[in-house]
Amino acid sequence: MSGLVDEYFFEYDYFFVICTMVWLLNDVYDVKHRAYLMSEKKMELMPLKIRSHGASSVMQYDERYTPYIEMTGLLPFIQLVSRPTPNLNAAAVTALIDRWRPETHSFHLRTGEITVTLQDVSMITALLIKGKPLCMSTDSEGWRQQMEALIGMSPQEPEVEHGGKKYRVPVGAPFTWIAANFAHCPEDVDDEVIQRYGRVDMWYVISRTIFADGTGKNAPWMWLKALTVFDNKFSWGSAALAYLYRQVINC
What we know:
The protein is mainly α. It is 45% helix and 6% strand. It has helices at residues 2-19, 27-30, 34-39, 66-72, 75-81, 90-98, 118-125, 143-151, 175-182, 191-208, 221-225, 236-249; strands spanning 100-101, 106-109, 112-114, 172-174, 218-220. The strands form 2 sheets. It has a 3-stranded antiparallel β-sheet. Strands 4-5 form a two-stranded antiparallel ribbon. α7 packs across α12. The N and C termini lie far apart (46 Å).
């Protein structure tokens, strides 16, 4: 009898949580998320526009990068995204995002809850889900000097406007700048140069795929910083899943 009572209260509590879920959201995300606007404000929203950056054919893969990329654990993923990607269904992706709940990191459908798990990430992307967490300081002070130490150069600083003010630029490098300077690794160069080009190639790819943003214009410095040491044994799959959760909240 006790088991039946416990089960009854569990089902009641679950039903209560689902019914009041919208009021448990963080206000910052709640008032901006599509799910809130549709369910509470009764707004009719159009499907999201799919913006897929892909790995791009501008940066040509060089087999000399392989040993260094393999050390990071990113080789299977980079080989995967270097191929043409399938067409994405904007309506299906939008329908999932509209049913996303930040409290549980899951999609609430009429048939129940589903979510993206680490196992899904591993099987679909071939990214490592075992290893050290991808945690590091996001302090950007002196990032140009650090970038020059890693890859030999950094983007030109913005020109000073009238009045002594500078243009605000992202902490990182434009994809166009990367492609113009690192698209082709020269022949007859030493291992240090090959490592430099291989590091930039990885930075370029993961900034356009795993950690893509809405602009599709810049590679953030922090992802190059994560590639300072090749054999850090990071759990890239865990970082990809956490980033995905964060991006879905911001839709």
